[in-house]
Amino acid sequence: MNVILPEYMCFWYGEFPTNLETTIRNAEKHTFDGIVTPIANPLFSREFDNEKISEDHKVFTRPAMLVSQSRWNVNIIPKITDALDCDSSDDAVRKYSKKVLEQELKYAQHVRPYRSILVKLKSGNVLHLARIISRVINSSNIIVEVPLVDPATLKQKWMGDGGGDTGRMCGSDTWTWWNNFRMACDPSIHLSVALEINATPQEFPSWSNLRRWLGEPVRSLITPSYLYMKNDLSYYVLSDDYRIVFELLKKHSLNFMIKAAYIDDLDIRKFPEVVKFLTITHRVDTLRTANYDELVRACQPIRDEISNAIYSKMEDDPVKYRSYQNAISFAMLSKPQDSRVAILIVGAGRGALVRAVINAKRLTARQCKLYLVERNENAVFHLRALKKELWPDLDIDIVLGDIRDYMPPEQIDLIVSDLLGAFGDDCLYPECIYPTQKYAKPNAIYIPSKITSYLNPVMTTLHHYKAAKQGWSIYVGSPYEVYNIAEPEPVFEFSFPSPAVDSVEYEQHKRLLFKAEQNCVLHGFIGYFECILWEGEMISILPKTFTTGLMSWSPYYFPIDIPQYVKSSDTIELNFWRCATDTKMWYEWIINRPILCTIQNFQGLWWSADKR
């Protein structure tokens, strides 16, 4: 069962229709995919205590047979009655609401088994509601409707505009409503958010407050029909003032719900254009990031052999190899023009990095001797074929083996390597490259010449759900559907060559402090790297210095098994270790503040990189 509805769908969100089939057909005329409708007639008052009246009131909604089962499955999202208050301070109201909610949930599951049900939050007092919803959370997908702004805030503002007290607003943070509900239910992949735009842009929360929704499973956006206006070309689009929310969530897999009391109230000429605008615009953004939120376990750089398909994907990155080519060219130009440059290429793969070296050689008109070292036997077959067919006149030696066991027949001028991981040093870059200094010339150049890893704390509900389901590990993740609690800070730095290579510390520790800007939930840390190839030529996946167009790496996700609630202005203290033995390397991390947790990935239990 999948919590995410089919992507790019648009629904009409309205009142209880008297004829479901007719309403669905009308919605389809407006190019909507379906409707969001109350599961029960809101004018129907149910009685549970009086036996005779209760018997009469068992028929509280339309018969399910009025539409086909496929209509229920695809074209209808049932909505729980808004007026219910399961957390009322009035015992009678609370008990009545509980019984009605249970009845409606049971019927919704009957007509639409294992599919979505919409439930609206009206406050942060949600414990009784969450308790009831928890009973069905594993057999239904619960879409939680949350207003962007607390209606109480809007009500007070309107009263103030009318001459009342315009002092401190009484409304609360609606993200807190959702968080209370989510935590009380026990966070589940079957919970998602439908965020309702219920205020003007002037009434929106602050930008830092809005950004928290980036880390939440927002799967639907509810917008009133009047927000869509004609642009200069006479096409209906979302009003520019409201685009901030749309742009904020454009990387989420969103469905759209257009709110209007009755389907006939909609302009039949207007909404085909609106639906087209929403779906096409959102599709452009999401297609560009296909599979971006998939979590893949970090690879074993030495143990795992790279397949032909992965090589093909890695090599389809012109930005990366153009950057390498520029750095190699600069390095060659620093050598005397009449000199012969001995170049060692570590991790030659199927030849993409070799081509960058050969291109640089031709651009600089330098004489070169190339030593290609690759441990993947299948990749070496490619290299030998390339040498025979494309590079027969070049002076190239191809070596099958581990760089740590290799000794070239001469001293090396230039060491070029392609062993960078998403965290910089996670593919054993220092362990593999520092030993080459024993046969490098004193003025040898290393490309890359410096790598720095970075970490920042994040709230990412989706990544946490997936990591918990797939098993705790270090994952190759993404910065989408992620709320960055604080800016990244540098962790480990390795420079090449090292002035004291015999005393290089492969085991390192760093203590990092981060300041939270908003109340949020800490789910772990995102890891990046920044790399100086040589003389200012840089490649980076760090957001602030990101190399435009770079595709070879996605950031790492370092999870924590138990999420922590973090308050605004709290300090997050992280201790992070790079650990190493003769046989493996791994990372460990522990949070000291705001709440002390256990050591994560202790002794490499979740993930480690084998050295052989």
UniProtKB/TrEMBL annotation:
<feature type="binding site">
    <location>
        <begin position="320"/>
        <end position="321"/>
    </location>
    <ligand>
        <name>S-adenosyl-L-methionine</name>
    </ligand>
</feature>
<dbReference type="InterPro" id="IPR035075">
    <property type="entry name" value="PRMT5"/>
</dbReference>
<dbReference type="InterPro" id="IPR029063">
    <property type="entry name" value="SAM-dependent_MTases_sf"/>
</dbReference>
<dbReference type="Pfam" id="PF17286">
    <property type="entry name" value="PRMT5_C"/>
</dbReference>
<dbReference type="GO" id="GO:0005634">
    <property type="term" value="C:nucleus"/>
</dbReference>
<feature type="domain" description="PRMT5 oligomerisation">
    <location>
        <begin position="451"/>
        <end position="600"/>
    </location>
</feature>
<comment type="similarity">
    <text>Belongs to the class I-like SAM-binding methyltransferase superfamily.</text>
</comment>
<feature type="binding site">
    <location>
        <position position="311"/>
    </location>
    <ligand>
        <name>S-adenosyl-L-methionine</name>
    </ligand>
</feature>
<dbReference type="InterPro" id="IPR007857">
    <property type="entry name" value="Arg_MeTrfase_PRMT5"/>
</dbReference>
<keyword id="KW-0808">Transferase</keyword>
<dbReference type="Pfam" id="PF17285">
    <property type="entry name" value="PRMT5_TIM"/>
</dbReference>
<dbReference type="Pfam" id="PF05185">
    <property type="entry name" value="PRMT5"/>
</dbReference>
<protein>
    <recommendedName>
        <fullName>Protein arginine N-methyltransferase</fullName>
    </recommendedName>
</protein>
<dbReference type="GO" id="GO:0032259">
    <property type="term" value="P:methylation"/>
</dbReference>
<feature type="domain" description="PRMT5 TIM barrel">
    <location>
        <begin position="32"/>
        <end position="260"/>
    </location>
</feature>
<dbReference type="GO" id="GO:0016274">
    <property type="term" value="F:protein-arginine N-methyltransferase activity"/>
</dbReference>
<feature type="domain" description="PRMT5 arginine-N-methyltransferase">
    <location>
        <begin position="290"/>
        <end position="447"/>
    </location>
</feature>
<dbReference type="InterPro" id="IPR035247">
    <property type="entry name" value="PRMT5_TIM"/>
</dbReference>
<dbReference type="InterPro" id="IPR035248">
    <property type="entry name" value="PRMT5_C"/>
</dbReference>
<feature type="binding site">
    <location>
        <position position="374"/>
    </location>
    <ligand>
        <name>S-adenosyl-L-methionine</name>
    </ligand>
</feature>
<keyword id="KW-0489">Methyltransferase</keyword>
<dbReference type="GO" id="GO:0005829">
    <property type="term" value="C:cytosol"/>
</dbReference>
<dbReference type="GO" id="GO:0006355">
    <property type="term" value="P:regulation of DNA-templated transcription"/>
</dbReference>
<dbReference type="InterPro" id="IPR025799">
    <property type="entry name" value="Arg_MeTrfase"/>
</dbReference>
<keyword id="KW-0949">S-adenosyl-L-methionine</keyword>
